[in-house]
Amino acid sequence: MSEKTYPPSQEFAENAHIDAAKYDEMYAASIKDPEGFWAGHARDLDWIEPFTKVKNTSFKHGNVDIRWFEDGVLNVAANCIDRHLETRGDQTAIIFEPDDPEAAAQHITYKELHENVCRFANVLLSQGIMRGDRVVIYLPMIPEAAYAMLACARIGAVHSIVFAGFSADALANRINNSGAKVLITADEAPRGGRKTALKSNADAALLHCSDKVRCLVVKHTGGQTTWIQGRDIDLKAQMEQASPDCPARPMKAEDPLFILYTSGSTGQPKGVVHSSAGYLLYAGLTHKYDFDYHDGDVFWCTADVGWVTGHSYIIYGPLANGATTLMFEGVPTWPDASRFWQVCEKHKVNQFYTAPTAIRALMAQGKEPVEKCDLSALKLLGTVGEPINPEAWNWYNEVVGKGKLPIVDTWWQTETGGHLLTPLPGATATKPGSCTKPFFGIEPVILDATSGEEITETEAEGVLCIKDSWPGQMRTVYGDHERFEQTYFSDYKGYYFTGDGCRRDKDGYYWITGRVDDVINVSGHRMGTAEVESALVAHPDVAEAAVVGYPHDIKGQGIYAYVTVMNGVEETDALRKDLEKWVRSEIGPIAKPDIIQWAPGLPKTRSGKIMRRILRKIAENDFDTLGDTSTLADPAVVDDLIEKRKAQK
Ligand code: 6R9
Question: How many angstroms from the chain centroid is the CA of residue 77?
Fold first, then answer.
């Protein structure tokens, strides 16, 4: 961990929305009088009916209830589009850069966005979609994904995006859990020169869903698909016929805007529910201040809209601010390792926001792919998704930022809606690897993991909790409020528990040390080890499986699976391949184990609990600090596992 600090340049600080003095003053005000602070900012939104109540929140287990601006009425899509038409109707809202670098980019103005979203909303209405109905979106990174989200928001439908890398089974689960009436997909998703057959995944998923679910299909590549009359609808053809006008429906501040499924430490993924007004306010404000976004800037977040980062920082945050936001369909390393930088040059990107895993992958390709591009428009770099190691931070700073640009390391979660811990680029001196300080209105606390006591000294290490609510906070787990309370408010009473471990240094800077639960972070994607385990044990040849994370040079963490086969089944390479394929089809390619180790026995306590701590150490090649193994039912299994681990590359 580096203690070197990087203060903002004087020039940057002078032109920034927030400098150091202003941060201190505004932060203090936001904690002293949250109602005044948030009401002041919320009034900048366009309200159909203004709110009179600001905050009504309780973190009390058994009574967790979170409401912001609850008697206000507004429409999120109108705030992201209509509000800007008069002043910036002809400005580009979305730049679409396709996978194929030879294909033309599209510049979609706010006026065009308005028209497309209205047409799309009218298609949804014609399918009988009403306020509160759920719509699942399974699309590539194409403009229709943005239209679909905003069309739902316009008519008060609740979208739930499923990342296009998830399998048919995972898609079916989410359609069924959310009770969606419509699935929106495309024929194919091109990425890195290859095409994924999205529609055929959708077809396979819909076999497990109600036959009432309709399927709107974007003919994107024109690839061949099966077509089921009466169920499948050609979206573009319908949009052409639909009216370009569709009034934005008045929605209550607390009406749900979207559901996004995310992995937890147990069971099936949880449907994280976000609100309308609070979420939009928080995404917009963090986008403006944390990236120091100014009118006319081109902002690029490289995430996929299938993750929360894409929701908040490709769509809602930037569009709430009337920004120009870039949507990129491709991957960083195709056709070659300079693609990101070529896109930055081509579209004169001003703020660039990506994940440490991408930085590490590009770092491995050397400086040349970066240096051959003109990155002079860049003003700021951002990172998100996992802790960034100092080597990657330094490379990002020196090679991409030429040592001149602020780097914002933003810590947040699907559950938080937007950044909670982040530098403000004109105010905060950064330290490589630290997400620095809280955003306005956020009160982070570090608790002793076992006693649950708050550690009040500046220097502290323990679990990260948040003391009070902020507008962007998730409101519930879809259909299971008890699980919401249980997951986030039961371990440490009265606090929101993040699931992350954290250290606070002598300057009050926060350093995330990683998850303290059974969630791993693979290439910045959250994965529950329990999910991968249940996929593995569903295979007929598998008796038992235990999955842990281990350090991986590019991905941050890799997936390490210990597998016990059924009696009489042989531990062959062919079975290993088959298991990899199996997990890909049960969950998706991102869940494929990096290493499968055969484990004739797993280390268990006498009561039958798998000792994951030991499995983690073995996966990390750390055999000397296994700790006490005497409570194991059969301590000899450990020696066997160590021997097999040593035999792996
Ligand atoms: C936005 C997003 C959330 C988990 C979170 C933490 C890790 C995210 C981080 C970070 C260190 C950062 N995480 N940002 N760790 N530094 N800047 O990634 O949401 O997919 O829900 O993951 O990711 O462990 O708890 P999500």
Answer: 21
Centroid of ligand 1 to alpha carbon of 237 (angstroms): 40
User: What is the pTM (predicted TM-score) of this model?
Assistant: 0.93
Ligand 1 neighbourhood includes 412 CB (under 6 angstroms): yes
Model confidence pLDDT, tens digit, residues 69-121: 999 999 999 999 999 999 999 999 999 999 999 999 999 999 999 999 999 99
HSE, CB side, 13 Å, CA atoms: give it for residue 566.
Answer: 9
Beta bridge partners of 218: 186
Closest C-alpha to 99, from 137, 142, 135: 142
Is residue 196 packed enough to be buried (19+ CB in 10 Å), middle (13-18) or exposed (0-12)?
A: middle
**Domain ranges, ordered by start, for the chain:** 523-644
Tell whether residue 413 is among the known ligand binding residues. Answer: yes
C-alpha span between 601 and 562 (Å, rounded): 9
pLDDT band, residue 648 (cuts 50/70/90): confident
- Inter-residue contact 645 to 621 (CB < 8 Å): yes
Query: 201: closest CA among 140, 274, 135, 267?
Result: 140
Interatomic CA distance for residues 253 and 66, integer angstroms = 12
Residue 539, CA distances (Å) to 205, 580, 586 in order: 19, 11, 10
Strand 460-466 with 496-504, pairing: antiparallel
Identify the residue whose C-alpha is closest to ligand 1 atom 3.
413
Superfamily of domain 523-644: ANL, C-terminal domain (3.30.300.30)
**Contact status, residue 588 vs residue 523, Cβ threshold 8 Å:** no
**Ligand 1 neighbour 392 (Cβ under 6 A):** no
278, 253 contact by CB (below 8 A): yes
Can you tell me the distance from the alpha carbon of 378 to that of 300, in angstroms, rounded to the nearest whole number? 10
Which phi and psi angles does 348 have, rounded to 5°?
50, 55
| pLDDT of res. 213 | 98
Which tokens is 401 given? 């930022």
Residue whose CA lies nearest to ligand 1 atom number 8: 385
Q: How many CB atoms are located within 10 Å of the residue 387 CB? A: 20
Ligand 1 centroid – CA 358 distance (Å): 15
The DSSP secondary-structure symbol of 414 reads: G
Question: 623-645 pLDDT, tens per residue?
Answer: 988 877 777 878 889 999 999 99
